[in-house]
Design a protein that fits this description.
Oligomer: single chain
Helix content: 55-70%
Number of helices: 9
Order of helices and strands: HHHHHHHHH
Strand content: under 5%
Amino acid sequence: MAIQDFESWRAELYETGNLFHDVPDDPEAEELANQQMFRYIGLVKQIRGKGGVDAVVALIGSMRAEEDEGAYEDTMEALEFFPEAELGRGAALAWRELVSIPKKFSGEVLFGCCQTGAGSVGAFNEVYSELDDEPKRLVGELIAYHENGTWLSGPERGLLRPVRDTFFDSL
């Protein structure tokens, strides 16, 4: 299904992506939480691989809840449908979102970029290189966190790095 109004889709994705749970002894609240989760999943499935870099940023930014009851698995699956360069570029452009969403999900996004392929890693690193100092520092700290025993501690360690211009180093 094509998205007719991307901005409305994005706004609803952000709203419904902030999932809430733990509503003991309140069947009505539990039902509302389930409806919200299923609406979120429906919105995620509308975009799989479509919408370009803006959709990648929106999907990443929507994963704000600490507990997702598995809903964000659909989000990660949707990200896999994007071309490598769009995924990598979108993930790096989503630096604000990456450093603010729960680390278990930011790590999964970064891991996904590494696993998708060289096109994704290269695109991420190019954008990462162009970030201002403070965003670059924040992203670097996040990557270092995940390289220290979490998502990026295996063969993915060291793949996500700013691209250095070595031209002047040789002079």
